[in-house]
Amino acid sequence: MSYRVRSSYSGPNKKILEFNYEVVQLNQLQWQAFVHQRNPLASALMSKMRMDTQERPLVKLMSLQLLVSLGLNPAQIQLISGFIDTYIKLNPEEKIRFEAELATIESTQQEDVMQIVTSWMEQGIEQGIERGRKQGELAMLNRLLNRRFGSLSPQLQERIENLPIPQLEELGEALLDFTAIEDLEAWFTGK
Length: 191
Prior knowledge:
By secondary structure, the protein is mainly α.
């Protein structure tokens, strides 16, 4: 279903702007109609179109197949595949069906699709490692600071939590020289 929208802006004695456009509701479009469109936008937006619940793994696979067939550069593929993955998050049962469908396609295309899926997994692992590293740094700093100065104010705690890992490491080293809570506050003033 689409709607025709017309709007205009008029000033005194003249019409300045006029817009005529259609509003398209993606959830009203059938994804099957876009499978053969050689268009990156079609590949991305299929994930927002009308589909039955059991079609989700197939739609994800078809979107990725279309995407890899377009000859885009890796950055474009990553951007669009991220959109697809955001809107079609598969549960464990759907992942099994996705993999079964993937096994039925031509091996070259299968490899290309798996490269995208593998890059999602690698990004997730990297993000998890980075998050775990930051949590470890924060836990150690909190234990040391609490032992040396007692409970920190919520404001100081929040400032520490917002530090990137390299600054958390710097704070950990600087903490060895702190003798009072004012030293911590002064450290932040110097940043």
